[in-house]
Recover the amino acids of this structure.
DNA sequence: CACAGCTACTCGTATAGACGAGTGGGGGAG
DNA sequence: CTCCCCCACTCGTCTATACGAGTAGCTGTG
């Protein structure tokens, strides 16, 4: 016998013109915000909420779906509705492409994850030649064919990021970059060995709700947006030598940048 | 008499184990992606979809609510469900805090918006003294009281950003910074006049779904995340002189950064 | 012609009920 | 005692219905 939700949740206000399911959502949200339900805690079941508020089940489900859309809770079939724990975030430092980080044997992702005590994995690696989209082609200065490297990154078994790198084919073909494992320091190290000394990166950051394919690939919970990052790498001659298109689970990342006050 | 949706939408697959409302959502999403419904176009009404698929209205509404959660469509009471137009985005360039931009009379937001042909407004301006949250205090090096400047930014009447600046009180009290209008070049110009020459900014970027208050302030549609940006400004002595906490409508912004390849 | 009101259409909210499917615990069979 | 099955509980899907409320166009009245 679980204790009645009445101890934690108030009563509806029949005089309010706020819809009943919104009032219920408000109650639950407030209870979560105030710590009456902590991370990982189980909310009252739909049946209990129906009983407590004296409304129909669809009304209760409607309320819960609001909280799901806000990313506050997630439902587990057959078990219950739980307050979503905030997963540990991975901080992308602004110096993550500093040359000194490339001197080591492992990839930046691996080194950084292990330093943070997480278990890194790379997954779904795919290397192929393609005709680029108009956008990618334009960013690469009009390349007509590109080498694409796709891969998925996981932390402790959880997918957190899916990235596609595009390189002009004339630059990458028949080089270690076209190998699944490009070697220590990653493709940036190889690019520099090939004579393309990197000068700067440009990053564009957007946020949006994920497409269904992204929900699947990143195993995203309801109410989790994605950060869409497009990075272009330029060499010292001003040529765009790589475009990396990355989709990240927004609840797993915080991006950090340093801006000089010129 | 509107034309039947049958011309644009397929039929359900009864052998599929995908839920009916998901199949309907898939159909509509595909039709939108393929341009059979363009931006601003009206989807078939709930009644028409009920008729077309032979399902109950709740099932159709369930399907539509998926698309709303993805930010693809929005419903207008009494009118219909429309494909969400992508609003013009404001690009925040990485040099937006360059000193040369402060030399002019107007604020960065105003100058930039007018250059882009939009009508900028600043709104809900509030200046007050407060005890900072633990997080803000830590970022400001342990300040116990701060001056807070809050304001909302609008483009062409649409709220796009809500920002709060926090400055150590000992630094900002009885200066033009404590005035509602701090004068040409904004508070960064005033800080430099006060002897705090700015050296660098640190920005942290997160994305998440908005809290209800943010939905209201930014008049956010369903399925639009927010970008949460926290910027700390440091002077040449390494002191944190301002923290700016900004919440932006994610569909209105793209952030651009330049990273040197050191 | 102008305008008020009716009406048909739209989505919003809410009810009551049914069945399906995943989970976990308790009790009975071996 | 161990294992398996069943049952109770959970959320997931779907139907059918009802009324409320916003919108827009048509129509009849003044």
């Amino acid at each position: 016998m679980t204790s009645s939700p009445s101890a934690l949740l108030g009563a509806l206000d029949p005089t309010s013109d706020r819809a009943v399911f919104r009032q219920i959502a408000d109650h639950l949200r407030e209870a979560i915000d105030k710590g009456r339900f902590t991370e990982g805690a189980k909310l009252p079941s739909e049946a209990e909420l129906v009983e407590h508020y004296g409304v129909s089940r669809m009304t209760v489900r409607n309320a819960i779906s609001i909280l799901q859309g806000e990313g506050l809770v997630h439902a587990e079939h057959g078990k219950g509705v739980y307050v979503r724990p905030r997963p540990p975030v991975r901080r992308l430092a602004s110096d993550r492409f500093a040359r000194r980080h490339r001197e080591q044997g492992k990839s930046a992702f691996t080194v950084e994850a292990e330093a943070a005590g997480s278990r890194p994995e790379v997954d779904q690696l795919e290397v192929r030649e393609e005709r680029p989209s108009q956008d990618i082609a334009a960013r690469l200065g009009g390349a007509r064919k590109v080498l694409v490297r796709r891969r998925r990154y996981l932390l402790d078994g959880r997918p957190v990021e899916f990235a596609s790198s595009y390189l002009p084919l004339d630059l990458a073909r028949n080089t270690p970059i076209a190998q699944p494992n490009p070697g220590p320091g990653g493709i940036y190290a190889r690019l520099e060995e090939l004579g393309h000394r990197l000068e700067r990166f440009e990053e564009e950051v957007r946020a949006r709700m994920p497409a269904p394919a992204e929900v699947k690939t990143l195993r995203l919970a309801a109410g989790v947006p994605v950060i869409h990052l497009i990075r272009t790498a330029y060499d010292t001659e001003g040529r765009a030598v790589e475009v990396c298109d990355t989709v990240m689970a927004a609840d797993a990342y915080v991006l950090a940048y340093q801006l000089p006050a010129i």
About this structure: The helical segments of chain B are 20-33, 46-53, 57-69, 108-115, 134-139, 169-172, 186-193, 212-217. Residues 45-47, 61, 64, 75-81 of chain B lie near DNA strand C (CB under 10 Å from a C1').
